[in-house]
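R.M. (postdoc): so does anyone remember the format we settled on? I'll just put the structure tokens first.
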């Protein structure tokens, strides 16, 4: 079933008109029509079933709230060194599917890619739209927020677990820190990733002084766009999947 995020308040057994952008997507692109059902997520982040009453305007009867939980039990905030080319888009889309709560980018010392300051606002708008599409596609209840942060701001962020995905830790055989952090059942987790050139020793020591812990993500050195996706997958396995 198709899911849409709406700014309208959702209450069971009420009739509401949805925004023109949703009307266009649902009716013109997906060719839904009267009687079809869809899922809506409103400002309360609680999905509801809804039935289309009229296509233009797109008027729906709001049904019961859906109880199936799709959010990761750990609010994961990824902070990625600005990568080259279209990789930021890929990180935003895939990390949203995998459950990230927030995604930030930072101007890392060893990054070759730089974002012109006058283009950042437009970039973030595009990333936010990509995140919304991915959140709808993956049946999330929350669209992750996307922004740009500085190293100094990173040192002041709070979370139950604050990790640095560090390639040098992986090369030194570090395999326990992520599992140990997850064993403490954090409700929130920040993970920092370097760009293609990796993290500089100054960045790592600055973050360590602020309480961040370096972790290895296995013996293979992953591409800058792969490492955050690995971390989210590992968090899912360690917090959502169960054996017999
Ligand atoms: N240029 C670096 C090198 O040659 O060692 C590799 C950088 S890697 C492409 C980009 C980022 O992904 C790293 O800075 C780190 O944050 C993360 N990363 C990749 N593989 C990792 C691993 N096995 N363990 C921890 N972090 C990893």
């Amino acid at each position: 079933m198709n899911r849409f995020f709406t700014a309208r308040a959702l209450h069971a057994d009420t009739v509401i008109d949805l925004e023109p952008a949703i009307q266009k997507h649902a009716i013109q692109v997906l060719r839904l029509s009267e009687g079809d059902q869809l899922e809506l997520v409103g400002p309360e982040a609680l999905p509801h079933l809804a039935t289309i009453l009229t296509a233009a305007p797109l008027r729906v009867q709001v049904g019961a709230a859906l109880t199936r939980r799709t959010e990761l039990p750990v609010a994961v905030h990824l902070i990625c060194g600005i990568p080259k080319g279209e990789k930021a888009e890929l990180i935003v889309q895939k990390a949203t599917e995998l459950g990230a709560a927030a995604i930030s980018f930072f101007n890392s010392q060893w990054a070759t890619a730089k974002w012109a300051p006058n283009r950042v606002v437009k970039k973030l708008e595009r990333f936010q739209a990509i995140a919304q599409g991915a959140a709808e596609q993956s049946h999330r209840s929350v669209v992750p927020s996307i922004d740009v942060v500085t190293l100094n701001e990173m040192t002041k962020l709070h979370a139950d677990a604050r990790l640095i995905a560090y390639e040098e830790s992986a090369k030194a055989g570090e395999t326990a820190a992520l599992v140990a952090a997850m064993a403490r059942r954090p409700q929130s987790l920040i993970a920092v990733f370097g760009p293609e050139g990796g993290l500089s020793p100054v960045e790592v020591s600055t973050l360590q002084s602020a309480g961040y812990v370096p972790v290895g993500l296995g013996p293979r050195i992953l591409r800058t766009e792969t490492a955050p996706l690995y971390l989210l997958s590992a968090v899912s396995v360690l917090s959502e999947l169960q054996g017999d």
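R.M.: ...and that's the designed sequence above, right after the tokens. Also worth knowing: Residues 38 and 240 are 26 Å apart (CA to CA). The chain has two domains: 2-65, 75-241.
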